[in-house]
Design a protein that fits this description.
The protein is of the alpha+beta class. It folds into six domains: 2-119, PAS domain (Beta-Lactamase, 2-Layer Sandwich), CATH 3.30.450.20; 144-265, Beta-Lactamase (2-Layer Sandwich); 269-369, Beta-Lactamase (2-Layer Sandwich), CATH 3.30.450; 375-452, Helix Hairpins (Orthogonal Bundle), CATH 1.10.287; 469-632, Heat Shock Protein 90 (2-Layer Sandwich), CATH 3.30.565.10; 641-772, Response regulator (Rossmann fold, 3-Layer(aba) Sandwich), CATH 3.40.50. Helices cover 40% and strands 24% of the residues. β9 (218-229) and β10 form a beta hairpin. The longest helix is centred in the middle third of the chain and has 58 residues, at 371-428. It is elongated.
Length: 779
Amino acid sequence: MSDETDGARELATILDSIEESIISTTVDGIVLTMNQSAERMFGYTAREMVGSSISVLTPLDRRDHERQVFDRVRRGERFEFYETQRLKKDTRVIDVELTLLPRRDVLGHVVGIVNIARDLMDRKRLDQAERDQFLLASLISSADDAIVSKNLDGIVTSWNRSAEKLFGYTAEEMIGKPIHILIPPDRPEEETQILERIRRGERIEHYETQRIRKDGRVMDIVITVSPLKDALGRIIGASKIARDITDRKRWEKAELAQSFLGALVASAEDAIVSKTLEGIVTSWNPAAERLFGYRAEEIVGKSIVILIPEGHPNEEPEILARIRRGERIEHYETKRVRKDGSLVDIALTVSPIKDMLGRIIGASKIARDITQQKQAEAREREALRQAQEASRMAEEANSAKDEFLATISHELRTPMTAILGWTRMLMSGEVGPENQRKALETIDRNARSQAQLIEDLLDISRIVSGKLRIEYKLVDMAAVVAASLEAVRLTAETKRIRIQTNVAPGSVPVLGDAERLQQVVWNLLSNSIKFTPAGGVVEIQLQRAESRAELQVIDNGIGIRSELLPHIFDRFTQGDSSITRSYGGLGMGLAIVKSLTELHGGTVTAKSEGEGLGAAFTVKLPISSLRYDPRRQTRPETSSLKTGLNQAHELVGLKILVVDDERDTCDLLRLLFNECGAIVQTTATAADALRVFDEWRPDILVSDIGMPGTDGYELIRAIRKDRGSRIPAVALTAMARIEDRIKALSRGYQLHVPKPVEPAELISIVSSLVGLVDHRPRE
């Protein structure tokens, strides 16, 4: 009997030490026993409850349901972790978690019920605290401001990502290190003073100071420092929020919340939202209001799907499913619907929110407007498309270039065949007297053809670079037409092509460059003659048409295909660019015509009914309002060697030094100047030229520019600077650009003459320098 008493007493002691409320009743609900935890939970003593019905602890609105539960327990069922409510003695209702177990006798019959209850209020408060704490940690991690904590010795204990961005140190580099690493040398006492105020329990707000970044740069910041306390209220450290001073206005506008969480969320530039696992919004910061248009009171407690566009029905369920699996969704680009119905492009970062036990209880979301970024990406894609298109066009241009270079090679080599062939036959003596003139005419014609090809290339280059020079004077277009006809007449007679002219009586004056205008007319005539079969007709008309001079060149040649007609004036355009084509040329003539015409303020058009039906070209130029005087106009004409020799008497007896690394050029110029009565010496290098200059003392210098070793620029520098000579000098060179001419004249040459040059023209140019020859006696 004593053992049974001791056992009952031991059991009672164990039951009293258990935190849960344990009440044992009969099957009818009459209380038999209750432990001390039950007394504390419900406010009744065991003496008050034993013998009474347990229903006094059940609220009236739950008694019917509880009765059904008790009936099922009487039948032997167990109810575990059943959440319900109970009445305390003071009539307060508390939330409890109830477990009901049937109590059986030795035969297994249910003879009573054991009621085990746990107060849920503490657990719910703990769960809420955990949610708040983890939400705070999540938001602090993604906050824009630097958040740092330290102990009372100034040792860093926490360091968020924004602190890494602001100060340049990673968390690993700073945690455990003294905070004074960031303090400038001129503020040695500042950290000590801050810690003293923290130990007194003071909060330091909006303190403007300076800190040193890891890269050594000193920056202005504003900080707020607060004491950190333990559960007993003792100050154990400090928390610090730091912000670059440029964010001061945003910081001043933000109201300090009761906690760091409120301050950070309220001042964030990004929309920060939290929600439950069912997608119900639980927090909504001001940036979310700006981004989506809803105020916090309009959206908190509502489903987040209000922001999801109709075309994304599965997006939110998929996000929540990933959050439940513990995944973090970073930089997810999508669209959302604003309150006004407009769509906005955003980038989302969604993180799970967990309680202290690691259970996922919700999600925190940071959203950023990326509309401008998307627009920039669209511009980049368009730029890429344009670059690809440009690349394609470049490839086409490269192909056209290759084709053009092949054409140049053909056109430049073709006349060389005749020139070299006849030259070698003449040198070998195999050409009889009756064919010598024919040979010379063939050489001259092909050389001129090659020179014209080169000149066309140079003209195109000058036109493209905008460096083509136009000397505007009053020009009679009738004289230009006459000179052009004279230039092509031999070619037309060779092909038995009849040229008809219809020029209006009287002058047709235009303001322009006579040489360039003749180039326009010559190109049009040459083009028509080239593409007109033998025996055909080419007609040229010149007339006034109101305030314009209208020039037409019409032929009955091969015509122009309709698909080629819109491109006929493009550079390097040819109707047939294959190696089997019937007509030569580089496809530049009409492009030059168009450019020169437009430089004179005119227009040029082409017309053709199709292949085999001829073509008509029309040039319209503005007529000048100036009065034309025929006596002041020189008719364009080609210089002749005979005329040049007749004007060369001024060169008789002069000493001319020729410098060129091409022996053939030296031989030609020696022969030419000897015919004029001059005394000539030639050299192939600048070094030899200086030796001859010092020994022979020439009167005039004619020099190439591009030579091996020392070039023509260095030669004239040595003559002008080192020897102090003012000898007249001509730069005769294949370097024919405008910048080459400017460079030659600025270095000391009086004249710049591009190769090739007509002999008569060269004689005239050199003769023009005779007045500059120094005739003083030489020592």
